[in-house]
User: Fold this.
Amino acid sequence: MGAGPAGLTAAYELSKLGRRSLVLEADPRYVGGIARTVEHHGYRFDIGGHRFFSKNQEIEDLWTEVLGDEMLVRDRLSRIYYRGRYFAYPLRAFNALKNLGLVETVLCVWSYALARLRPRRPERSLEDWVSNRFGKRLFRIFFKTYTEKVWGIPCSELSADWAAQRIKGLSLVEAIKGALLPQRRAGGRRSEVIKTLIDEFRYPRLGPGQMWERVTERLRAAGSEVRLGTRVTRIGWRGGLVVGAGESEWRAPDVVSTLPIRELVAALDPPPPAPVRAAAEALGYRDFVTVALVLDRAHVFPDNWIYVHEPGVKVGRLQNFKNWSPAMVADPARTCLGLEYFCFEGDGLWSSSDADLIELGARELEQLGLSRRSEVVDGCVVRMPKAYPVYDDHYQRNVEVVRDWLTANVPGLHLCGRNGMHKYNNQDHSMMTALLVARRIAGVSDLDPWKVNTDAEYHEEVRSGADTAGRLVPTRV
Assistant:
């Protein structure tokens, strides 16, 4: 259930192990889930940017196996845009202070000195934590606006614990020393891996969706079936698993779910006990809108993507798909930009018409000084519900309640992937959980997919208190 990276990887691995699968996907046109590539009038664009790199060699080899020479190696360039200037990302102190200008730099240093003399106590929120270490002015420039755009929660309400984990080891004094003093070069393969992850990445010539379009072709050629436009509405679990979609239903010994846990539990028939339903319903999500605009200009900016810290616009991030791969644009004399808006399903942004969102995007590009409104010649809007599972104070317990009940009562139902496991993870992590699920079904491995860590690696033993849930996300105070 679901033809995203996890669902298709599970089916592909089962195919290689001699098992046929039926993949059901609600979208009528695209495979790939959040890693799809949408096509509009010959222009291809992602739902967010999807770099292909992993510390797991098995996943790297799988990408190469499927795409071969179609996998490009791209240089990475990403910066922060603030008040008409571009700041290096990851942040470099000298570059940042130079771009801020002498007056703003003096004010930032003064703000930092005040924070060191009179730190906020108690240090409860992200705002407290960052202001104490960087000063309030730098907090407002480099932390506040973007964080609040992404998560929709004021920084004064986000936990300081998350900030301490996310920005650990970074201080203004150490950053300035690192920028001004020569750095000792580390040797060995590890430093080469880190450098590669920072400086370059692999990317399919026609976008990440090309990977999943190719996997779908291989599955069909091997006798498996991928059905688009087929939304699962019912999952019978007593007396064997039966999956229903509209007037059709299929009986299967094993079912792999990459559906959001909330939707999965709601589809179970008969319904599970009230505590299980309540736990699933309590799981939250952050949603996402991409506004793709075609500009009648060959070059706009050199970056793959830009983080927009400008508080006067709603856009959070800009993707330049031509800089990911030249083949993403139909006309080399034009550029396709993806404007990313973070929102909640049903709010003002989400509910706006496509025409209004395209107009908003064109207006904000002009406001940012990146293009003129007259240069926008085409546009397209894609809404992606449940793009980011939310980690609130109770999500782990809620997932555990659902997982324990499913293990005891529906052993043939297997969960994997980002929404399937409610883990805010990367594509390679989702793929690794799917590989392990497929191997358990085929009886060739009993490794637990829930022990795949944030680097998409399997850990036989998990240390007490270790984070295996995916990337760090903020929690409320």
